[in-house]
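From the pipeline queue, job 12 of 40. The input is one protein chain; the requested action is below.

Action: predict structure.
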Amino acid sequence: MDDINVMLTLNLGTEEWIREDYTSTTGNGISFTIYTEEKMVNVKNLTGYTLKIKFIDQHDHMLYDEFDCDIVSAINGTGEFLPLIGELDINFIGEIEIELTGTNEILSARGTNGSGKIRVR
C-alpha cells in the first residue's frame, strides 16, 4: 500500500531564510524543486500529491510539526512554503524534508550534497 522507501531528491531555492525579510505581500517563502534522481535532471511531476515540509536539525530531530506546502508548478516539480509570522521562531541550521502524499503512496524528498540544507534566522 504505502511506499515510503522511494527517495526523491530535494533542491532548495535558497540556503538561508531570514524572518525580517518576510512580508505577506512579497512572500519570500522557502521554494524548492523535487527531482526523481540524485543527479537532479528529471523533475518529479507533483500532480495529485499534497506536500508537507519538515524541518530537521543537525541531530536528525524534527524541530516543528510538519507544515503544508503549496505546489507552484506540478509539472515542473516546484513548490513553496510560506510561513505565517512567528511560525519559524528558532534560529537553526538543518535540513528540510518534503513528504508527498498521493493515492496509496507516501514519498519523501531530501537533499543530497547540501541541496536540502537551510539556515533559518
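Job complete. The mean pLDDT is 87.
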